[in-house]
Design a protein that fits this description.
Layout lengths: L25 H27 L1 H14 L4 H19 L10 H10 L10 H9 L7 H21 L7
Length: 164
């Protein structure tokens, strides 16, 4: 008898369909959500920090305006006023701007990374609160240069509570 070939009865092997890339597995969705949240938080913190430092740029621009005009004793007065305004803006919770000259200089030294503002508080007070005729022009010019360079460094680098 003629037996049929058993191999002829076999069917081809059907492979399963390839795994699709879409939709991703739930783990990938969670990872993508986590990455989006982290990116948003980093952007928010960066924006908040940038906005919090705008006063530094404005103070430096004002310092440049002060240095390009006025007499030395007026420059010293304007620079010191700018320092008080900047310190007040940086430390809104404390009433820094109303400190006496010596205490304010101590505050400036304490919040700077370097040893700045080593001028004599009494002589500085005389220049700040005296009439132009009472000033020593040579000391006033030296103080103006020293105060301007110290003010620029302090504005750029001072520490603010919560920023350390």
């Amino acid at each position: 008898m003629n037996e049929p070939d058993p191999l002829a009865q076999l069917r081809d092997i059907h492979l399963p369909e390839a795994i699709s890339f879409w939709p991703p597995a739930p783990g990938w969705w969670l990872l993508a959500l986590f990455a989006i949240i982290c990116s948003a938080l980093i952007a928010l913190l960066w924006l908040r920090r940038k906005r919090a430092r705008i006063y530094r740029q404005e103070a430096l621009q004002e310092l440049d305006k002060i240095l390009n005009s006025q007499q030395h004793f007026k420059k010293v007065q304007s620079i010191f006023r700018l320092l008080r305004q900047t310190a007040h803006t940086a430390n809104r919770k404390k009433n820094i701007a109303s400190l006496p000259t010596g205490s304010f200089l101590e505050f400036l030294r304490a919040t700077s990374h370097q040893s700045l503002f080593r001028c004599d508080p009494q002589k500085l007070g005389l220049i700040l609160y005296a009439t132009p005729e009472q000033h020593d022009p040579d000391y006033c010019a030296d103080l103006c240069l020293s105060l301007a360079s110290d003010a620029r460094l302090w504005i750029k680098q001072h520490r603010v509570r919560g920023e350390d």
